[in-house]
Specification:
about 160 residues; single chain; alpha+beta; Aminopeptidase; about 25% strand
Length: about 160
């Protein structure tokens, strides 16, 4: 399947918010995150993805179809500089096509340097996905640190 990773534009903010709702719903079975009185999962940093230079949001698209989204920021636990995956969603129908792996690799390549990825440890699917992806991408050249709550995978791809 052909797809592309494209920057989310200001006028596409609502579409990103809708995809983010799927990601937050998907993760709500693993963390204490309830919908608000408007039946929306709140994400207090959402607007910053359209105002802060250190935050980036991308759609994964195949033609006019949305396959998922990625949100990257610099909210690091251990490194002073670098990037981290804030949110990552591949719609369930496309999860078996290696799209997630390929998208992760392309995002890593887009930003060379220090990386931290902190999957929800109590989400076994996400944890094993990221551990495998990072291990393969780095040829095992990464470290794992615990921030007191969850593991953080740390690597440098310069």
């Amino acid at each position: 399947m052909n797809y592309e990773i494209v920057d989310v534009k200001q006028e596409e903010k609502d579409k990103l918010h809708k995809l983010l709702q799927y990601a937050l719903y998907d993760g709500s079975q693993y963390i204490d995150n309830d919908i608000n009185e408007d039946c929306i999962f709140e994400y207090k940093w959402f607007d910053k993805y359209f105002t802060d230079n250190n935050r980036n949001a991308y759609f994964i698209k195949s033609g006019n179809r949305y396959l998922g989204m990625v949100m990257v920021n610099e909210n690091l636990k251990f490194n002073k500089t670098g990037k981290c995956i804030a949110e990552f969603l591949i719609m369930p129908r496309f999860r078996k096509n290696h799209i997630g792996k390929n998208v992760a690799y392309k995002i890593f390549e887009k930003f060379k340097g220090d990386w931290e990825v902190q999957p929800m440890e109590n989400n076994p699917g996400a944890y094993s996905f990221w551990k495998k992806i990072i291990s393969e991408y780095t040829n095992g050249n990464y470290i794992t640190k615990n921030d007191g709550i969850e593991d953080v995978f740390i690597f440098n791809n310069k």
